[in-house]
Structures are given as structure tokens and as C-alpha cells.
Amino acid sequence: MADHIKILKSNGTWTVRAGGAVLAETRNALELREGDHDAVIYIPRSDIAMAFLDKTDKTTHCPHKGDAHYFSVVTKSRTLENVAWSYEDPSEDVAEIKGHLAFYQLPEVAVEQI
């Protein structure tokens, strides 16, 4: 693993809420720490209500993790563009995050430990 990246099992229960709906709840979240950046919580895809998410055409590249693919969240009142991402085929160093999504912490999207 890249020396500056650490992936740990996150304790407790994590939820993701958007537009008044619970999109995810899990006790199997992973916490990715990269250098001095804030930790990012990755939620297993199997614990996410994927019916609320639409994959978009947006991609970005990280030299340590690989190519990120983005998702929008569709709520009753609007679509929150590109608020979640996943590394569909991550580099070997971070293979643990395959099958997981992360969400931006925004006023419209809450990622919380309960």
C-alpha cells in the first residue's frame, strides 16, 4: 500500500442521508486515511439503496487509487450531481475499497456515524 494511505474497518454504524431519505446504513464501513486529508468513509455497495443513485459520465484519476467513477443521487425534489464515487477497479494497494462508494459530505448529503 502507498505509505501515505491507510484503510481501516470503521467502528460503529454509519448512515448516509439525502433528500430526507436514508440511502445507506452499515456496520461494515471502511475508513480511508490519505496523508493529511480528512478521513473518507467507504460504504459497501450492498448496504446502499442503489436505486437512488445514477452512474454519471464523470471520472477522475488518482495515481494511488486508480480511476473514480461518479454517481448522482436522485431525490424526490432534485438530482444531486456527482455526490458519490467508487473505484470500480482500484489499484492493488487499495483493493479493499472495491465494491464500496464514498459520498461527499454536503449540506444535502449527510454521512454520519450513529
Strands of the largest sheet, in order across it? 1-4-5-9-8-7-6
CATH architectural grouping: Beta Complex
CATH class: Mainly Beta
Please identify the structural class as seen in this structure: mainly beta
Largest sheet: 7 strands, antiparallel
**Overall body shape:** globular
What is the helix tally? 0
Q: Proportion of β residues?
A: over 45%
CATH superfamily: Domain of unknown function (DUF427)
Model regions low in confidence, pLDDT < 50 over at least 5 residues: none
Cα-atom radius of gyration: 13 Å
Oligomer: single chain
What is the domain total for the residues?
A: 1
- Written as H for each helix and E for each strand, in order along the chain, the element string is EEEEEEEEEE
* CATH topology description: Metal Binding Protein, Guanine Nucleotide Exchange Factor, Chain A
The portion of residues assigned to helices is under 10%
User: What is the averaged pLDDT score?
Assistant: 94
**Amino- and carboxy-terminal Cα gap:** 30 Å
The number of strands is: 10
